[in-house]
# Entry
Amino acid sequence: MRKPLSWTFISLLPLVLAASPGGLAAQERVLTGVVTRAADGRPLVDAVVTLAGKAAGAQTDASGRYSLTIPEGAIRVLVRAIGYKRQELPVAADQTELNVAMVQDVFNLEEVVITGQATETERRSSTTSTAVVDGADVSQVQSQSLDRALQGRIAGANIQTNSGAPGSGVQVQIRGPHTIIGNAQPLIVVDGVIYSNVTVASGLSTVTASSSNIGRGNAQDDGTNRLADINPDDIESIEVLKSAAAGSIYGSKAANGVVIIHTKRGSTGKLHATLSQRIGFSELLRGPDFRVFDTASAFALFDSALVRSYEVNGKLPAYDHLREFAGNKPLSYESQLDLAGGSARTRYFISGGWKKDNGIVGNTGAERQTLRANVSQQLNDKLTLDLTTAFVRNDNDKGFTNNDNTGASVTYSLAYIPSFIPLKPVNGVYPTPEIGYFGSNPLQTARLATNNEKVLRYTGGATLTWNAWTTDRQALKLVAAGGGDFFSQKNKIIAPPELTFEQTLPFPGVITVGNADNQDLNWNLNAVHTFVPVSQSFRATTAAGVQYEDRQLNTSRITATGILPGQTDVSQGSVVSAPQEVRTTERTLAFYGQEQVQALRDRLILVGSFRAERSSVLGDPNKYWFYPRASGAYRFPDLLGAGSEVKLRAAYGQTGNLPLFGQKFTSLNGGQTYGGNGGTTVGTTSGAQGIEPERVKEFEAGVDADLWNGRATLQATWARNVTSNLLLSRTPATSSGFNEEFLNGGSMRNISVELAAGVVPIQTSSVNWIARATFTSLRNRVLSLAVPGFRPPTAGFGLAFGEFFIQPGHSATQIIGTVGYDSDGNPITKVLGDANPDFRITLANDVTWKHLAFSMLWDWQQGGAAQNQTLSLYDCNQLAPDQGTPVGIKRANACLQDGVATPFVQSTTFLKLREVSVFWTLPQRWVQTLFPGADNARIGVTGRNLLLFTDYFGYDPESSNFGAQAITRNIDLGPYPSSRNFSFNVTVGF
Amino acid sequence: MRTLSTSLARRGVLLAALCGGLLAACGDFNVTDPNNPTLDDLVKHPTKAKLAVAATGLFIGARSDVTSLIWRFGSMGREGANLAGNNQPDYQEPFFGPLATTQFGGSEWFVEYASIRSINTYLDAVPRAPDLSAEERAASIGFAQTLKAVSLFYVIEGRAALGAPVDVDRAVSATPAPFVSEDSVYGYIIGQLDEANDSLLAAGGSFPFPMPPGFNGFDTPASYAKFNRALAARAWLFRATATPACGATCYNNALTALAGSFITSNAADFRVGAYFDYSTNPGDVQNELAEPLNGTTYFALNFNVDDAQLQAGGAPDQRVVDKLSFIDPGDTTVSYQLSGFPFAVNRKFTNYFSNGAADQSAPIPIIRDEELVLLRAEANIGLNNLAAAITDLNLVRVNAGNLPPTTLTGASPKAAFIDELLYNRRYSLLWEQGSRWVDARRYNLLNTIQVAVPNGEVPTRMPIPADECAARGLGTSCNPLGT
# Structure
């Protein structure tokens, strides 16, 4: 359980020597003073002043004042505050006043990072690579979700959007993939409550028939992962535990890393109110161009009479169909009100947000309302209670995109309609293209189709901290925490019967209603004992605890076709398909123990821990699995000049990854009828009765250096992780009657090289320039498999178009494809690319000049490959813009004659300008004039995804038809087009 | 020093106390499948009721690939085309080739074997059901083994000389069943049918589960045995062409089987037979080949009309008239073209229409009397009983096609008889089982099928699917028998 940051200094660090021994009263004196911000001289609230080497401390009030009882004689005090660099200052024997000006800690070098369920340490004492992102960094530029805002900010993480749809899914992969078919997303912990990041499919596949296999169809619905329910504006900080060592205490949830989110807390003092308003717009970022036909080139492809009928004044027109339905510049709005304040014993943070992003495709958009109340109450000297509650309503309309077999997807059917065919309505009637895809008119679909998702979510948590026992040398703290995360999701898909593609079906019109209920409960109990010997030569923190988690997700869905005109209820259909209901339950119980030792004047840090865990989804639900961890670091202060510090660190740890619910069962498929009678068939998936967790073993080593008095920082990490006992979903010989079999067996390795660097090249009273860069390079290799090489589920659409293929000695994310045929007509395949990029470099610059602040974030991905099936659609239909040229003809032939995949596996190298912002802090006099009663105000212009440089064909090199997938991402098949977003912002503080 | 396990045991006691008193109690860790019945339960604890549901499931399994087979075989035989364009392979592979080992070319395999898996599971469970009588067990076994022959027949029709595995009732983790030759597959099919027939004849008066409407007239063990014999006749004839050495043995066995089947010589009975049922009921499957005239998936190619013989009045073969229509019967110039497919199409199939409209509940024949008559003709041609063959060919020509009797005589060359047989099989079974393509291959006449597109080709057989090859460590395309 992570405690709120603002409490850390009061309740944990001072713990050891907090008691003020009454026997020494005669020698006491009182030190007072004011702590201010060096930048502007304003008072600093909640700074902590302690005796150096001890931990008894005092905290500054709203005006920055503190009062600390200190012993006689010359001493030294330590002054600390969140976000500022610590200072250790001498106090003379006769001194009673000390005023301190604190300098900002630009690179968060002194931030507190967690080391266990209820333990934490300063970042400089961390034994593993740390990644901490400030809330301001993810909320400054508008984003649709938190994970999008994190793109380009974490070394070692590959964060990729699945499409450009408002509220579309995002996948976060940290030093991975660690699994082939298991859970591929990191664990999310918000204020100590495990936060469900599940994706519940919308059911769009009931219209698109993207796959007759329900699971595969669901994956193609461009679902929203529920991290979308967090309001980035509420976030104080985000910490990413990248390694198995750092995440080991989270056991089998941590294989893909842990993202720990702290929401904002109030602070002592008067109420601070902040009101922000944004207004902006989006526009199409990029999209495929279209082929322009003359009569001759059209005759070569199409029936001449048909072509003639489309001539206008003897010439074939050329319409830009994409921009006809995605050329909008829709508005977006966002309002946010924060209230924060508190007294000596109570702190609160209350916020409300309302946001609406309209999508560039007609009839789409994402709306979110959030309410949050965080309260911390000190019940008495020893007991503290923290409460967090958040309520969210999310309302998305995503439209019809992605893979499609019926003409529903606008981006898919677009690739079938020659540019000379008009699609705009004539007298209110949308024409049915006579050359096209199921008669689909994407303009009409974009206008009339509904793909709505409404989520109501409540997340609440409570943490009770009892500083049970405190002496000079020892302290015992007990922490009990629990929380619940509940959401209900309702999906409604309406393909009205008048849609031209529906008109070609026997029962035109589809309505699907889906419901999902999620209930996650978790609690943990922890005891933390701290010991410092008389010599003060070391500090030992021992922690032990128990953790329980219960996750339940129930989904149900019903679909009707043959919808009555104008009707929107599922009951208004003439044919109702079989209802579906899926219930899943996962229960996990774990014990852990941890020992953390700091010695040699805090230069040496050693941490060891273990976790023992059982889970209901495993073959043997009673068996405990052990996950150990050991790590250490050694600091060299002032090694490279005064104020510098170099740290060497190494860590080894193990985590696990649980199978998904149901992978141990071999089912009979019910819910089927024949001749009026119910029937069961043997399911096509063979479960693994004795299924075991995957195990990730990771070793990482690195160097952290802080130079130039904190103005430059470098973190370099090399990590090697091996997942053994891999969960495999292989395709057995299909003559067995099964097309999927779950089993454990095999191992896979990742080697990750990560650099995170920061420098403040200019730091003057008027100009401050902060530059930060990350570098990430990951290499994956399948070491062994218990089965022959195999196609993972959702590997692709055939070797003639490129597919993923898992085989030992190769990267798990390699894409192979047919490059030719031997004399017997058998395809010759070869590796055509790898979804995993060669490297990724991000560069962020923040420049402030007086009242102006400018920032931008660049993201460069080099290499990587995608199965660009959007391109293959255009090429197979001979509608790509260059089809008249030899290059284009070659690609068309690859599809139509040669059956080779080479052109359709494309490099995903790109350079994106992800974020730009310019803010101007208004001078005080303007503030008072414009916003009477306000303390401060700033206005600004921000932009996201402004520029994209790439040779990739189509929409966006970042896309995933099958959503979040460990391996089979980077399949591009008519995604929702990405957009470029601009926003004007006003923030006023009272 | 305490061992870890003791320590854990003590913690367990502590935990029990916690779970009793704290927040949510710890739930049960033994979570069983809440969503579906399990395979284990059916095999270990079968009952008459569970098996009745499983028996209905066997129809579902056997039916599940039939529409796919019809349009895929039908595309390779240029009966029609799937221009859904949903996956280019749907037209690219059958018209332009080559067949891929996934997608189009990899079809008509797994679904059939999934059906066989359900059948084998059922066959494992039946003897353990305590509440089934011996007769009911025999009925159940005869029923299931007959359907196994149906599914395996679809597999070998597509793969021909590549052969197929038959001994597939083994654990999924076991070594995959070996491939056996085309002849052995037909031998296995016939063996299953013969065993089934024996069981059916010892099976009492009724099945211990409901029979669907499509088996009207074949819904008792005795009448179902006639369906079984019809399948056996077809299997013997297909074996005859696969294995010329079988010769008269095959043809005579076919005639013997036909004698036990429901064959008549009455044109009014042509549509009598066993059918797969479809419906719009929840949980059921619709006949996807029943598409309205403005549907954009399945189209009839004009070769069907061009190649048809003419009736006395100049109209084409009545079977063409009955089974084809223009997209817009009022405007024959209305056509549809798919980008990437080289020609426009203007005709649709109307096989699965009722009262002039597409009927998603229209049944699809598994085997019917009209085919049996042609099977008898084929056997008689094989045995050189040409007069008997001419009688049966004319029975179909005249009654189904409304054509004048054939000009063949006992002196006509054998090849002419084969042509006439295949002509009639083509039109009698048009868009019902892809027979044109299969028959052309059986008689080495694939070159009589129009290529239809520039640089196109007519595939000879479907490849072994990539998954099957890969699981055997044979790469993604293989020919285990080297044929």
Summary: The two ends of chain A are 33 Å apart (CA to CA). The CA atoms of residues 635 and 647 of chain A lie 4 Å apart. Chain A has two domains: 5-105, 139-794+837-864+908-989.
